[in-house]
Amino acid sequence: MQMYLLSHNQFLDNFILNKELCTKADISSNSYRFWKDVIAAKYIGSRVVFLNKKTILKKYKKLASSCKELNGLVTASAFCKFTGLAPSHLIKSNNSKLYYKLEIIEICRIKFVNLKKFYDDLKLDYSYQIYVEKCKYFGPSPLEKKIKLSSELCLGYY
User: Fold this and answer.
1) β-pairing, 153-157 with 130-134?
2) Secondary structure of the chain in the HEC alphabet?
3) pTM to 2 decimal places
């Protein structure tokens, strides 16, 4: 078993959620640790484990194909760490304007944000580093690149 650490802006393309596979297979969520040649990954500082679809054991391949696609997704906590955004913006009942600009998906009680779609909607290259904060804290336009997301929140990028 190989474990990789993902940066907070790395998409989960070609991965499935370990918890979802283990629930469907009715096996321990630590089983992957004893599988030969499996590639696992998790975000820095996170306990949520993802498995590369191509390295899953043959007897679980069919179950793995029934797991939800994670292409373009990152965990909500990784999204918040990457953008500097408070997690409260990802809760519908908090009435954040940003909540409606994001595609938020929940799988096995774990929240994901479609970061690829967010970049595409804003017409930004995936290599850009982004951050979200109140517009009043941004410098003048020629010095700092920004996109207004709501009346109070702006997205900066470089």
Assistant:
1) antiparallel
2) CEEEEECCCCCCCCEEEHHHHHHHHCCCCCHHHHCCCCEEEEECCCCCCEEEHHHCCHHHHHHHHCCCCCCCEEEHHHHHHHHCCCHHHHCHHHCCHHHHHCCEEEECCEEEEEHHHHHHHCCCCCCCCEEEEEHHHCCCCCCCCEEECCCCEEEEEC
3) 0.92
State both tokens at 77.
């906590």
CB-based burial label for 76 (10 Å; 0-12, 13-18, 19+): buried
Strand 130-134 relative to strand 146-148: parallel, antiparallel, unpaired? unpaired
The model's pLDDT over 24-74, given as tens digits with 9 standing for 90+, comes to: 999 999 999 999 999 999 999 999 999 999 999 999 999 999 999 999 999
Query: Are 155 and 122 within 8 A, CB to CB?
Result: yes
50: which 2 tokens? 């993802």
CB within 8 Å of 39: residues ≥ 6 apart: 1, 2, 4, 51, 52, 54, 55
